[in-house]
Amino acid sequence: MDHTLKAVDEELAALARDVAELGALAVSQLKDALRAFAQRDAELGREVAARDERLDALDAAVERNAIRFIALRQPMADDLRRPITAMKTAMNLERCGDLAKNIAKRVGKMAEAPGQAQAEAIADLGRLVAERLEAVMTAYAARDASGALEVWARDEEVDALHDRVFAEILACMSRDAGQARVCTHLMFIAKNLERIGDHATNVAEMVHYQITGHDLSGRPKL
Amino acid sequence: MDHTLKAVDEELAALARDVAELGALAVSQLKDALRAFAQRDAELGREVAARDERLDALDAAVERNAIRFIALRQPMADDLRRPITAMKTAMNLERCGDLAKNIAKRVGKMAEAPGQAQAEAIADLGRLVAERLEAVMTAYAARDASGALEVWARDEEVDALHDRVFAEILACMSRDAGQARVCTHLMFIAKNLERIGDHATNVAEMVHYQITGHDLSGRPKL
Predict the structure, then answer these.
(1) For residue range B89-118, what is the model confidence (pLDDT) as tens digits?
(2) Residue B57: which of A56, A57, A220 has the nearest Cβ?
């Protein structure tokens, strides 16, 4: 392998490593935010929020290195897919981190405890979403197109569970106006979890596209 | 001017035109969504939602052309800023379009009319946010760094008004549990407007960065 090809390979591998690290951080931020919520642990919530900077910095590094790679190496067609999907995957993972941070910050703001049924509904949705995010990052690391396709195809399970959780919270709110404040936090937490699920679906599309060149989304791509 | 320089200039101008068009569309989608909300016009809401595809397509075109420009022209430093900010500005504007679409779709789902005080609070917030988005696109078109700086510096006005609107809706919900459903729609509409305001702030940072090379956000950039 000549010198330039080796450098190109090393740069792409470094990008993939950073994206994988960002993905692992996003998963652990989400799990810790959910633990902070379940245990009403405001201190852990603050720790999660404080750790978000690391995800922002990694996302910025991936973007910088991907753009530098494109400008210096002038890759065409297939070879262009890898830096671009790295950049867009990082962006989606960074957004997952923001949403986990928002959940974590709400823990400290919830003066009253949520009802048990509502808290369990959130926990169920959280588990499903965390499992999806983890599965898509496993597919990313293994360059496993069918693993990515599976996460993508099961997109609607998160939406369906979100809708059930939302109905549960709305019913609680409609029964008891005194629960309006705490239920509002629960609704935004549920919405944030649904949005993390959407980002996992986006990442699944990108992983699949990077490996196969086939676009699942039907959206115009490169 | 030699042939290549002229082509580079034309490509950058075409990118800027597409971004400006996307910005104009995002502003008009937001205004129409707000009009649909104010007039409880579900048909207009559906039209806004249907028009969102055009924004997605323009965003995809800007991204494709920016990446192609970087790969073919290998711009360095200052010249790299323009395609990158075009791409990121387009992404933020496309997200504004999604949020306007979400507002528009809620109009058809609100079975009951919101209270007058709450509807007016949303209208006020909407007007402020639309004005900011319009101002930042004017600064973009005029390459006006101080105009962008002004939008950026007044970021907190949107957040402060959002918090007042939110308190108003929460109070209504806490008084009357029967309002839970309609007030939940209002809360998500208010949150969507706040997020459009955040995107306008992001665009202001990018416009300022593109013109001056100075980063307002304190985040790591190129």
Answers:
(1) 999 999 999 999 999 999 999 989 999 999
(2) A220
Measured CA to CA in angstroms, residue A198 lies from A87, A155, B87 at distances of: 17, 8, 21
**Interface predicted TM-score of the whole assembly (ipTM), two decimals:** 0.88
Give the pLDDT confidence of A40-97 residue by residue, as tens digits: 999 999 999 999 999 999 999 999 999 999 988 888 767 788 998 999 999 999 999 9
Residue type, A153: A
Distance CA(A69)–CA(A11), nearest Å, equals 7
Furthest-apart CA pair in chain B: how many Å?
71
pTM for the complete prediction? 0.92
Tokens of B86: 């075009």
Of the residues B87, B112, B174, B198, the best mutation for testing chain A's interface (the one with the most A CB atoms within 10 Å of its CB) is B174
The answer to whether B173 contacts A184, with C-beta atoms less than 8 Å apart, is yes
Instruction: Give the rounded percent of residues in chain B with a pLDDT score beyond 90.
Output: 82
The per-residue DSSP string of A138-161 comes to HHHHHT-HHHHHHHHHTHHHHHHH
What does the block give as tokens for A69?
Answer: 């790679």
CA distance A96 to A32: 13
Tokens matching residue B92:
């933020």
A18 touches A89 (CB < 8 A): no
Under an 8 A CB cutoff, do A181 and B187 touch? Answer: no
Q: Tell me how far the alpha carbon of residue B30 is from its chain's centroid.
A: 8
Please check whether residue A129 is in contact with residue A196, taking contact to mean a CB–CB distance below 8 angstroms.
yes
CB of B23 closer than 8 Å to CB of A182: no
Instruction: Mark out chain A residues that contact chain B at CB-CB < 8 A.
Output: 56-57, 60-61, 64, 67, 70-72, 74-76, 80, 84, 170, 173-178, 180-181, 184, 187-188, 191, 219-222
Whether B180 and A191 lie within 8 Å, measured CB to CB: no
